[in-house]
Specification:
The chain has 440 residues and is of the alpha+beta class. It has 15 helices and 22 strands.
């Protein structure tokens, strides 16, 4: 193919994959239900080489996608019939401990960033799955266990180097940086980021699992407890378990440990746990605890809703979700958004929902095989939550056809986001997380 020959001539054949085992591996993503087949995968090792790949995609009329961690559940990192810029060879993380800033290449994962910061007694605002790409998490917003104290991942993005359509390299100015803080990978290839770090050598974190018969009561009591939670305490919760459902809390305390012990003891007394692993851990150890729940090779379908709290209707929908699961691997995680993340002015970043809320992540997970019953379960849970839900939804989890949610996902920021998109990518070369149409 002309594109393969051209890019091979410009970058060297070792940077270009069009067949063979390495090509097959680069074409697979975390969600094995996705079977996209690119024409060519380019593996750059520098921003200049990324620019060559982007330019070549335009010259040869190939749809373009960017692969970081490959964890997007819809597989948007690998464009079917297109050119994939695979940043897997660009994972360097450099930490300036005195300035508390990490410089992160575009292919670095959450685990790479957290692992580089930990020896300095520092953490980044990130998620709980180490294999997720740090850029993808950050650009979409980035809920995480430290959001109450340090904000979203996007709130800690200080700067970015970006390859625009056509191959031009820029340092993000004010408008583009604003859009990158929550507007997704829709403007160019982010080849490097500067991320704010924070001092926190240890966390208090873990899982507390409660009997299913107490699910409704526990979640209702949690709803009474969360409004008074200090910034240092973020409390994800949810419904999961195998073979039968259980209700869990996954609290994370980031602050003074003695105060944290008291706060967590009070939290855990909301019920009588069957087991609890809450203890002092480092952030890398926390990632290791979550790793089994994010294993690759399974099929996934996800939906999302934002709710103002664990109201009776929401609790009822969550309990029904647990009882009607079609797979013991499926579950619902309720992410806690409060504190520092909620104090960021609504127009300060592209991220659209700054009120205290809970982001509900509905995850249908099953071993390879027919998926319709599991997708139907995810749809049913989403529909059950819809009457109590806030407008919009978390863009990193939305499907392109979730039109009603997309239209409201960025709140009052939608018009400015459309303007930035038109300025930096008028041809629509980059399509990552869904953006509202200019008329939405």
């Amino acid at each position: 193919m002309d594109a393969v020959r051209d890019i091979s001539a410009r970058l060297g054949p070792e940077r270009v994959l069009a067949s063979g085992p390495a090509f097959e591996a680069a074409s697979r993503v975390w969600n094995s239900a996705v079977e996209h087949r690119p024409v060519v995968v380019v593996r750059p090792r520098s921003t200049a080489e990324v620019a060559v790949a982007v330019e070549a995609a335009g010259e040869h009329g190939l749809p373009l996608s960017v692969r970081g961690g490959g964890h997007d559940w819809l597989g948007r990192a690998v464009r079917d019939g297109g050119l994939v810029v695979d940043l897997g060879a660009m994972r360097r993380v450099t930490v300036d401990a005195a300035a508390r800033v990490a410089t992160v290449e575009g292919g670095a994962t959450v685990g790479d960033v957290i692992g580089a910061a930990a020896p300095h007694g520092l953490v980044a605002a990130a998620g709980t799955v180490g294999g997720v790409g740090m850029a993808g998490l950050t650009l979409g917003g980035g809920y995480g266990p430290l959001a109450g104290r340090f904000g979203l991942a996007a709130d800690n993005l200080l700067g970015a180097e970006v390859v625009l359509a056509g191959g031009r390299v820029v340092t993000a100015g004010a408008d583009l940086l604003w859009a990158l803080r929550g507007g997704g990978g829709n403007f160019g290839v982010v080849t490097a980021m500067r991320i704010r770090l924070h001092p926190a050598a240890r966390l208090l974190a873990g899982f507390a699992v409660y009997p299913w018969e107490d699910a409704a009561g526990l979640l209702s009591r949690l709803d009474d407890h969360l409004p008074a939670a200090p910034d240092e305490l973020t409390v994800p919760s949810g419904v999961a378990g195998a073979p039968g459902p259980a209700v869990f809390l996954a609290p994370v305390w980031c602050g003074d440990e003695s105060a944290g012990q008291a706060a967590l003891a009070e939290l855990l007394r909301l019920g009588t746990p069957l087991e609890s692993t809450v203890a002092a851990v480092t952030y890398p150890e926390l990632l290791a605890r979550f790793e089994p729940y994010a294993a690759g090779g399974r099929h996934h379908a996800m939906r999302t809703r934002g709710v103002p709290g664990l109201t009776p209707d929401v609790v009822g929908a969550l309990v029904a979700a647990g009882e009607r699961r079609t797979s013991p691997l499926s579950g619902v995680v309720v992410h806690h958004f409060h504190g520092a993340a909620a104090r960021v002015p609504e127009d300060a970043t592209a991220f659209g929902n700054r009120r205290d809320h809970l982001m509900v992540e509905i995850g249908a997970v099953w071993e390879p095989g027919p998926g319709e019953p599991h997708r139907a379960w995810a749809d049913e849970v989403s529909s059950a939550l819809a009457p109590a839900a806030l407008p919009g939804g978390y863009p990193n989890l939305l499907r392109p056809d979730d039109h009603d949610q997309i239209a409201h996902a960025y709140g009052a920021n939608a018009a400015r986001l459309a303007e930035v998109k038109a300025r930096y990518d008028p041809g629509g070369v980059f399509t990552a997380t869904p953006l509202p149409s200019p008329k939405s």
